[in-house]
Design goal:
CATH superfamily of the largest domain in chain A: Tetracycline Repressor, domain 2
Distance between the termini of chain A: 66 Å
Largest sheet of chain A: none
Oligomer: homodimer
Radius of gyration of chain A: 22 Å
Order of helices and strands of chain A: HHHHHHHHHHHH
CATH topology of the largest domain in chain A: Tetracycline Repressor, domain 2
Strand content of chain A: under 5%
Helix content of chain A: over 70%
Chain lengths: ~240, ~240
């Protein structure tokens, strides 16, 4: 790793410090993510990133060919961070573990609210096949982790896949709805609603699919709350 | 409406006929939609549309400034067609009515499979803020129609909105999962799964929201099958 040779104009800026290449790159991405968190991507320029980072525009360009590259790098970094949050805590009931992951997810959504909304709403100028692929990869990781957490060792059949993909879409839709409706529902209550949805969606699928029935049986065995929820469903 | 003045080269093509402006425009959109149905947007050129329509490239350009404009017009046309399918039949139980709308939705997805997948997967080169807005408008129509069909006359609160938006996302996710997994589940069975999901998702939400509880009560009053499903949920 080589240290930067800062141009005289950048060296004069107050926040400017010489940083090793990788560290500077990470700093610029972190600064960009902070800007994307509260402003739509089309309203964040490389100048804004340079200013917020206490660096010069040429320096920012040395790391990223343009705004699109910076956006993609920032998205990739956010996606990695999000995927890291899908880790299930070792203790607790299945729905308790799911709740912990959801808490972590919603704090991510709250931190990156504008960027998250712009990305999932679609139609942003910075969206490309590559950004679409990054988002899809996060969904695939979420699918794999959820299946593993459910104790599914063999390949998931079409109905179980359908169930888990659908529930993940409910998580995304509820995050979007939460942001759009001015966060009227508190995040803890939203997280409980989502774990309830997981239980009832699984139970309604289990009736038509032996693999999902197996997942439900394991869930109910370890989770008295889930069983109580299903008993309360009868009119 | 004026008739086209066909250029000599186009007049020679076998399928070419003079058409009034509006009719020709609709014909080109219909041809484009057929091509988008089985090929991703980036693989459909204006030349392809001209050839399939039995028209010249200059004629296609007279109606659409470029591929982007043609794509947006085709998307708008497809969105209108889809929104038209959200009409609930007057007779039958609530879940029966929902099933009829879903049948219509899945036949739309099957007809437009590649275009539908490309659009919802995101990251297509032809996606813009305008195409995003068209997709969001279809979702808003689906939300309004579903609420109306549920007999909700007053404004929907955050939990009921959350529920219906989430279920609509399940419909979309299941259509994508259905296409991605090689249509292993038959559409009738998928439709029944979705109406079941609607019932259980509503029941699990009703426990925490009086407005949704009202919706559930109306649903159960008219739908013995929904009540039976909820009774079967107990472990």
């Amino acid at each position: 790793m080589t240290a930067e040779t800062g141009a005289p104009t950048t060296a004069k800026r107050p926040g400017y410090r010489r940083l090793p290449v990788q560290q500077r790159r990470e700093q610029l991405i972190a600064v960009a993510l902070e800007l994307f968190a509260s402003r739509p991507p089309e309203e964040v320029s490389l100048d804004d990133v340079a200013e917020a980072a206490g660096a010069s525009r040429p320096l920012v360009y040395r790391y990223f060919a343009g705004k699109q590259q910076l956006y993609e790098a920032a998205l990739r970094s956010a996606a990695e961070e999000l995927a890291g949050r899908f880790t299930v805590p070792p203790d607790g009931t299945p729905t308790g573990q799911l709740a912990a992951v959801l808490d972590s997810y919603f704090s991510f959504v709250a931190e990156h609210h504008t960027g998250y909304g712009a990305l999932l709403r679609g139609g942003s100028v910075v969206e490309t096949a590559r950004t679409g692929a990054i988002v899809d990869e996060v969904r695939r990781v979420a699918l794999r982790r959820t299946l593993r957490y459910l104790g599914v060792r063999e390949a998931a059949g079409p109905r179980l896949t359908l169930l888990v993909r659908s529930w993940i879409s409910v998580v995304e839709a509820s995050a979007m709805s939460w942001l759009d409706e001015g966060r009227q529902i508190d995040p803890e209550s939203l997280r409980d609603w989502l774990t309830d949805q997981f239980v009832v969606m699984t139970a309604a699928t289990a009736a038509h699919d032996p693999q999902t029935a197996g997942v439900l049986a394991t869930l109910l065995e370890h989770d008295p709350q889930a069983a109580a929820l299903l008993r309360r469903m009868a009119p």
